[in-house]
Amino acid sequence: MNTSLENKRSKLVAALSSIPVHMRQCLQKLKADGEDCRKRPDLLWYLLLQSAATLGSSRGWDGLCGDPATLDSISYSKLASLDAETRETHILAALRKAKVRMQTIKAPQLASNVARIASMGGVEQATKRMLSLSGRDEKFRFMRQFDGIGEKYGRNAWMDIYDPAFRDTVAVDMRLKKVAKELGFSGRSYRDAETFYCAIARDAGLEPWELDRLLYNFTSHFLNVIGYIENQDKDTVFISKVSCGARKEGNNMQSSEQDNNFITNSRSELPNFTPKFQRTFDKCDPEIRDMFLDLVNRFIMYPIKRYTTNKPNYSMSKNTVFCCIYLQREVLLIELKVDNHNLPSKSLKLEEYKDASKPGKSPYITFRVTNKNQLEEAFHLIDEAFKFNLDMRQAEKVLK
C-alpha cells in the first residue's frame, strides 16, 4: 500500500476509534432495535420483506416496512390464505404502493417465499427453527434458501437483529464498496472485502458489525475524513445522505441537535455556492432550506454534475436528464427535463406531463414543493429520471 492510501486508512481508523456521541447512541439504538425485532413471532417473514424493500434502494423501507397499514396488508397470515396467483398480485400492488424497486421481480420471489415458509409449518414455526440454528454457516445457508436472498442479505438479515454469530460480519453494499475503493482495495471476492473491513475494525477497536453500521449510516462523514470529496472532479461528485437505521432510512434516530449536524455536514458536500445563491439560501425559511438539502443529498450513488450560478437555482444533470431547483423564501420550484430522443419515454412514464402545445420538445415536469409529501413525490420523479437514463446508457453500451 502506498503512502497516500496508508494515510487514508490511518485517518479512517482514527475517526472510527473516536466516534462522536450521537454515533455511539446510534449504534446502541440499532442493537436494542435488533434485540426487540428478534421477539417478533413473524420475524422470518419480516426480514424477508425488509430485504426486498431495501434491495436496490433503501428508501423502499419507508413505504413498506415503515407504513403499518401497507405492512399489515401483506402480513404472512393474510397472504398464506390466498391462492398463488392472487398472492403474487396482492404483493405486487403493495410493492407498487410503497414505491419499492424492481417490483415485478420481487413480487414472485416473495410469493414463492410464502409457500416455502408454509412448507416449514408456518411463519411462527419457521421463525423458531431459524432462531434455534447454531453457527454462522448454518444460519447463512438457511437465509440463502429463500428467493431474492444473496451474499449480502444472507448476512444482513442476521445483522439487522444483532445476531451474535454475525457480529464479526460486514454486509458489503455500494456504500462500503465506495469507501473501500477510495482506500485502494483491489480484491474481487465478497470474502476479500469482508476480510479487508474486519482488519480495519480490529485496528479501530470495533466489532465488524459496528464498523458496517457506521460506514453505512454515516457514509459521507467518513468519506470526508479520508478526503474523498477533495479528490473528485469539481463538476462530478457523489451525493450521500446520512441516515441512521438498521440498513434502512425509515427509522431516523438522530436528535434535533444531530439533525443540525447532518445539515452542516451535508452543506459542506455541496459545490461552492455563488454569492447570490448563498444570499438566497440564507433568506429562505429554515424548513425550505432543510428540504432543499434533504433532496439534493438523496442521490447517493449517481455520478451527476451539479452547480450553482449567479441565479437562485441549483442544477443537477446527467447525460440527457436536467433538473433545476429554484429557491424561493417559502417554496422550492423544480423543473425536470428529459431530452429523450431515441429513448423510450413511455418507460419513464412522463408522457402525461408532456406539453402538447410544444410538439417535438423534451418532456418536462414543473412542480412546487412546500411540504414533505411533495418533496417525496419530487424525489421519486427525479430519481426515476436519473435511474432510467443511466440504465439506458448501459443498455446502449451492451448493444454496441
Description:
The chain has 20 helices and six strands. It is of the alpha+beta class and 400 residues long. It has three domains: 3-28 and 170-229; 39-160, Endonuclease III, domain 1 (Orthogonal Bundle), CATH 1.10.340; 270-399. Strands 1-2-3-4-5-6 form a six-stranded antiparallel β-sheet. The chain starts with a helix and ends with a helix.
Please give a quick description of this structure:
With 400 residues, the protein is an alpha+beta fold.
Helix percentage range: 55-70%
Distance between the termini: 37 Å
Give the number of domains. Answer: 3
* Total helical segments: 20
The helix/strand class is alpha+beta
Content of β-strand? 5-15%
- How does the major sheet shape up? 6 strands, antiparallel
Gyration radius over CA:
22 Å
User: Uncertain runs with pLDDT below 50, 5 residues or more?
Assistant: 229-246, 248-269, 341-359, 395-400
> What does the average pLDDT come to?
76
Topology summary:
Elements: H1 3-17, H2 21-37, H3 43-54, H4 60-63, H5 68-73, H6 76-80, H7 84-98, H8 103-119, H9 123-132, H10 136-144, H11 151-160, H12 174-182, H13 190-204, H14 208-217, H15 219-225, E1 236-237, H16 256-269, H17 275-283, H18 286-296, E2 304-308, E3 313-318, E4 321-328, E5 331-338, H19 345-348, E6 364-369, H20 372-399
Antiparallel strand pairs: 1-2, 2-3, 3-4, 4-5, 5-6
List keywords for this structure.
globular, 400 residues, disordered C terminus, alpha+beta, six-stranded antiparallel β-sheet, Endonuclease III, domain 1
